[in-house]
Amino acid sequence: SAPPQAPQDGVCYRIAAPASGAWVGRENQLALAVAGDWHYALPSKGNLFFDRSLDQFIMFDGVWQSASLPLSA
């Protein structure tokens, strides 16, 4: 929920709630570190990512959830 102090270029984070610092108001978005700046992307329904902090795949369906769980219709 808070951006790291010195992120490595190319590292991508999923912004969790409640976001703080530079990420305030960007909950559920993806943040990518490039040349010391943050670039943001809005996920689309069906986007699938591997979350290293959870050691599992997650999918966006309006909210982030484990890809191993059935998705809501």
Account of the protein in words:
With 73 residues, the protein is an all-beta fold. Helix content is 0%, strand content 34%. The chain has no helices and six strands. It has strands spanning 12-14, 30-34, 37-41, 48-51, 56-60, 64-66.
Outline of this structure?
The chain is mostly beta strands and 73 residues long. The strands form 2 sheets. A 3-stranded antiparallel beta sheet has the order 1-2-3, with no helix packed on it. Strands 4-5-6 form a 3-stranded antiparallel beta sheet, with no helix packed on it.
Determine the strand fraction and express it as a percent band: 25-35%
The helix/strand series, from N terminus to C terminus, equals: EEEEEE
Shape: globular
Spatial sequence of strands, sheet with the most strands:
1-2-3
Q: What is the CA-based Rg, rounded?
A: 13 Å
The number of distinct helices, counting runs of at least 4 residues, comes to 0
Q: Major beta sheet, specifics?
A: 3 strands, antiparallel
Structural class call reads mainly beta
Can you lay out the helices and strands and say which pair or pack?
Blueprint: E1 12-14, E2 30-34, E3 37-41, E4 48-51, E5 56-60, E6 64-66
Antiparallel strand pairs: 1-2, 2-3, 4-5, 5-6
